[in-house]
Specification:
Blueprint: H1 2-7, H2 13-25, H3 37-54, E1 82-86, E2 89-93, H4 95-115, H5 128-132, E3 147-155, H6 158-163, H7 176-182, H8 186-195, H9 203-226, E4 230-235, E5 238-244, H10 248-260, E6 264-267, E7 274-278, E8 281-284, E9 287-291, E10 299-307, H11 312-329, E11 334-340, E12 346-352, H12 361-374, H13 379-384, H14 397-408, H15 415-446, H16 456-470
Parallel strand pairs: 10-11
Antiparallel strand pairs: 1-2, 3-5, 3-10, 4-5, 6-7, 7-8, 8-9, 11-12
Length: 474
């Protein structure tokens, strides 16, 4: 307790300690060091942060004169740490390029021990061209849609989850009989008043959080492969994957649903195992097996959509920028697209996963784009929703949508198509209104202005998703 008082002001450790003593005197457990886990953890994390910032250890100095510390021969300024000599060839390599140089041999040897077929063992990583060819618009190896996507996802406020700020309060965890016991005497009532609003930070909380993130990451590859993508990295709440442009938004939407444990399901075609996520719990073949992060948790996604010949390193950086835009500008729990068209035009736009009257924004976008062909809604209709004087229609967007679709879409002859078109109009109006309202709120809260106007954002979203699904119009 003295250590806590020395390091932190207003920690409440004295009140906490007194409450534990009262519980012990009334038949509770003996107080032990584990009861102060919340404070021990806080001290250790503070010391770790201090050491990271100070970095009082000396830097590396090359003293043997062999070249280590010089620039990596292939690493654009990265310092070399390994020298590779092969006959007359001599390469200075940094850590990443050194791993690349030996990885294939290491994996071959590992598999050879199992299969004893070293010469037949092959490792194949798909190129960006291979991934772009998987777009459904492409046929016979010919490009109609030459775009692929870099998907970067990250759990929101993970620092607060790990520190315990997002942990449940004790009053929401203890049994009703425990609450009744605290009401049995004046001293116990005072003790409960000190404990009731405390976060439940204990070893079991961190163990459960780690286990939940491990379960999530173990299923990520199945989701990415479902959409013909290639998982590059997944650790805890972080995901990096390459996918065909026409399915990346569906993949991102499924991953955030799996993360929160809501409205998600996937079936493994190889072994017939079916996983479902509902009400914050993961189910395996209709049996509950583990908790997921729950509705309080959220993920944000950055998606860079580029041509298959676009530099991958630049695309990765753009995905990071898109993720930052989703978190910092859109306020987390959001996705952001950064689309580079063949002409060089760059569009950056995004939205929260759900908005008023639009409970699933990615699904709404994809449904609207997919139904365009069936209802004979041309892509030019979307451009007609972007007149120069668009801001004048801010309070009459419904009339503009009705006017544009009336002039652009052939009038259906059968009643079923008429009804379908009216429903389509209403969903389009709901989406435009919801996304426009979201960006207007950003103007008020963060002084962020979508250019040229907030009403352009929902149309830019639709045009971007259509490009991702269909490729460039020729």
């Amino acid at each position: 307790m003295d250590v806590v008082k020395e390091h932190f002001v207003n920690s409440g450790v004295e009140d906490y300690s007194n409450a534990l003593e009262i519980i012990k005197e009334n038949g509770g457990y003996e107080v032990n060091p584990g009861a102060y886990y919340r404070y021990s953890y806080r001290i250790l994390m503070s010391k770790l942060a201090a050491i990271k910032n100070i970095r009082y250890f000396p830097g590396f100095e090359d003293t043997d004169g062999v070249g280590i510390g010089d620039a990596d021969d292939f690493g654009a300024g990265v310092k070399a740490c390994v020298i590779f000599k092969e006959e007359e060839r001599r390469d200075l390599l940094g850590a990443l390029n050194a791993v690349k140089r030996v990885l294939l041999d290491v994996l071959k040897n590992k598999e050879a021990k199992k299969a004893k077929e070293k010469d037949n063992f092959k490792i194949h990583y798909e190129s960006t061209t291979d991934i772009a060819l998987k777009n459904k618009a492409n046929e016979n190896g010919q490009f109609k849609n030459a775009y692929f996507a870099v998907l970067l996802m990250d759990g929101d406020k993970m620092g607060k989850w790990v520190s315990g700020d997002m942990a449940p309060e004790l009053k929401n965890l203890v049994h009703e009989k425990v609450k009744e016991a605290f009401e049995s005497g004046d001293e116990l009532k005072k003790a409960w008043e000190k404990l009731v609003d405390l976060k439940s930070i204990q070893p079991a909380y961190h163990k459960g959080l780690s286990r939940t993130l491990g379960i999530f990451s173990s299923l990520v590859e199945k989701v990415v492969e479902k959409y013909d993508g290639m998982l590059v990295y997944c650790g805890g709440d972080d995901v990096l994957a390459l996918l065909p442009a026409d399915r990346v938004l569906e993949c991102a939407n499924d991953l955030r649903k799996l993360y929160t444990g809501k409205d998600f399901e996937i079936e493994d075609s190889k072994d017939g195992i079916k996983f479902e996520a509902k009400n914050g719990v993961l189910w395996n073949n209709e049996k509950p097996i583990a908790p997921l992060m729950g509705e309080k948790a959220s993920m944000s996604a950055g998606i860079a959509v580029v041509n298959h010949k676009f530099p991958l390193q630049v695309a990765l950086q753009m995905a990071r920028e898109a993720e930052k835009y989703a978190k910092d500008t859109l306020g987390r729990n959001a996705f952001a697209l950064l689309v580079v068209r063949r002409s060089g035009q760059i569009t950056r736009v995004g939205a929260n996963w759900y908005l008023d009257n639009v409970p699933d924004v990615p699904k709404a976008l994809l449904d609207l784009v997919n139904e365009m062909e069936d209802l004979k809604v041309s892509h030019r209709s979307l451009y007609k929703l972007l007149p120069v004087d668009l801001p004048l229609f801010e309070n009459d967007i419904d009339k503009l949508v009705d006017y544009v679709l009336k002039r652009s879409v052939p009038k259906p002859k059968d009643e079923e198509k008429k009804k379908q078109l009216e429903e389509y109009k209403q969903r389009l109006k709901n989406l435009i209104t919801a996304v426009n309202t979201m960006y207007k709120n950003l103007e008020n809260k963060k002084n962020y202005h979508y250019q040229p106007h907030s009403l352009n954002a929902p149309i830019d979203l639709l045009l971007s998703v259509r490009l991702m699904k269909r490729g460039e119009e020729k």
